[in-house]
Amino acid sequence: MAHEKKVTDLVTVFVTHGLLRANVIRGLFESAGIPVMLSYESVGPVIGITMNGLGRVEVKVPEEWGQEALDLLHAEPRTGEIFHVPPDVTNDDTTT
């Protein structure tokens, strides 16, 4: 019996510039059991450029996890929790 691979669509739930913040959000999602993928141009991290779109990092999750990921991003931090998306961070480039 052959194994069929299920193809799922990915949605972008967060866009940032630079891998540091993207990896923090990736860790948040992974710790909640949400599959995540980072999409970026490979030359940006190599030469450290974050302009003209080279430092742009899209955080993507499977479509069926999209709303849960967005809810997690916008949740108020629990007491003692150090991670949250600062209110001054805009995320205008997301699609759901």
What do you see in this structure?
This protein has 96 residues and is α+β, with helices and mostly antiparallel strands. The chain has a domain of 65 residues: Alpha-Beta Plaits, CATH 3.30.70. It contains 3 helices and 3 strands. It has a 3-stranded antiparallel sheet with strand order 1-3-2. The radius of gyration is 15 Å and the shape is flat. The relative contact order is 0.26. The mean pLDDT is 78.
Keywords:
96 residues; Alpha-Beta Plaits; three-stranded antiparallel β-sheet; 3 helices; 28% helix; flat
Mean pLDDT: 78
Oligomeric organization of the protein chains: single chain
Q: In the CATH scheme, what's the topology name of the domain at 10-74? A: Alpha-Beta Plaits
Structural class estimated from helices and strands: alpha+beta
Cα distance spanning the termini: 36 Å
State the CATH class of the domain at 10-74. Answer: Alpha Beta
> Globular, elongated, flat, extended or rod-shaped: what is the shape?
flat
Side-by-side strand order of the widest sheet: 1-3-2
Helix residue percentage: 25-40%
Number of strands: 3
Order of helices and strands: EHEHEH
- Number of helices, counting only DSSP H or I runs of 4 residues or more: 3
The CATH architecture of the domain at 10-74 can be named as 2-Layer Sandwich
**Poorly predicted sequence stretches spanning 5 or more consecutive residues:** none
Largest sheet features:
3 strands, antiparallel
Radius of gyration: 15 Å
